Amino acid sequence: MKNVAFSVLIFLLPGFSLVNGQNNNTATVKVSGLIKTDLFYDTRQTVNAREGHFLLYPASQSFDPDHKDLNDAPSLNFLPIQSNLSVSVSEIEVGKAKVSGLVEGDFFGGSNANTNMLRLRHAYLKLRWEKAEIIAGQSWHPFFATSCFPSTLSFNTGSPIAPFSRAPQVGFSYLPGIFRLSFTMLTQRDYCSNGPEGTSSKYLRDSHMPDLIVSAEIRIKGTTETVIGTNIGYKKIKPEIKTGKGYQTSSTVDGISAEFYLKYVLRRLTWKIEGVYLENGSDLLGIGGYVVKDTINSLKGIVSYEPLSTASIWSEISYQNDKFQTGIFAGYSECIGAASDVKGPFYFTMGMPVKSVFRVSPRFLIKAGPVNAGIELEYTRAGYGTGSPDGKLANPVYVQNTRLLTTIFYRF
């Protein structure tokens, strides 16, 4: 019934308008969206989400009794689940503020168990003044810089090398001219930290403190366009409120993360580069996480924690005109590990002890108005290590996968 009601609402909305009686403002409601089908072939089994659609990296080696690697096997799939619908409400004046909003959903599902089901992507309202702005709701995490992110055809958008996440948030921005300074508080929903109970928003909720992020960006436009930006974030989670022995614990793990990005546009040529440092960045799909550092009280099972840090860099160059776009993405990410000796266990993103990921992906896209068709070759190499007492991942074993992705989509 919920999906039927949503469909009826979508068909009714194009002729719908909102009226603010106090200021006699009429808001226009616009329906837009994307119909997209991806066809992809992998040379190896992969670590992914939604039946292979969201690719992270190739799966580690797993041997049968004949010492044959079970994951050294190809895979193929066709999926349209990235298709989405958006309902946006244009600005109306409320007092001295201009208010707008957006609701967007896709059919990606909230987990592998409900692939094909409707999922909330964005739902926020925005209040804008001459030099200030407030956003409240769910939208892109600030570390997914919407002014500078990989334009890959793959839905992974450079992940796990480039941060990827949406999150419930409240943010304030100050906008004096070409400069933007923002402060954002966030919680977790679809993209969460990992821990003793698996991936969950519980660890952040139990810390009773939101993620805190300060952002700054400069955008200079003329015959060329230059965007320079940075984000600095602080996060604290509480992996347990009760130890395995049944005692209360208040141990937490903190993390400080930062990124710096640059985009330069010269006519039809665009160059982007970004460097990222994450501590406990599993909610951003970065490799890494955190580890048990030491035992504080062995009788009660109380432990302390240490974040695992990750460093990443990626760059992309692309050229486009009215008929086609071509580009290439390349990036590398490495789990540096903990800052001191540890006892373990380790809590990694997706539970995978990945020490490094390298990726290169060239693409070509043909454009015919709102209809686009493209092809992308994505080569990814991952090194799987073993957690060691010094907090590092030792003795990495490397595996690789090549994905051939073809896509066709229609924007409306």
Which features characterize this protein?
412 residues; mainly beta; 16-stranded antiparallel β-barrel; globular; 2 helices; 58% strand; 4% helix; two-stranded antiparallel sheet; single chain
Overview of this protein structure:
It is globular, with a radius of gyration of 23 Å. Strands 2-6-7-8-9-10-11-12-13-14-15-17-18-20-21-22 form a 16-stranded antiparallel barrel. A two-stranded antiparallel ribbon has the order 3-4. 35% of the residues are buried. The protein has 412 residues and is mainly beta. The chain contains two helices and 22 strands. Residues 4-22 have low confidence and may be disordered.
Task: Summarize the entry for a quick read.
With 412 residues, the protein is mainly beta. The protein contains two helices and 22 strands. Helix content is 4%, strand content 58%.
Structural class: mainly beta
| Major beta sheet summary | 16 strands, antiparallel, barrel
Backbone shape: globular
Average pLDDT, rounded to a whole number, is 94
Q: Could you give the order of the helices and strands? A: HEEEEEEEEEEEHEEEEEEEEEEE
Please report the number of helical segments.
Answer: 2
Residue fraction in strands: over 45%
Low-pLDDT segments? 4-22
- What is the helix content? under 10%
Number of strands: 22
Q: What separation lies between the terminal Cα atoms?
A: 26 Å
Rg from Cα: 23 Å
Strand order of the largest sheet: 2-6-7-8-9-10-11-12-13-14-15-17-18-20-21-22
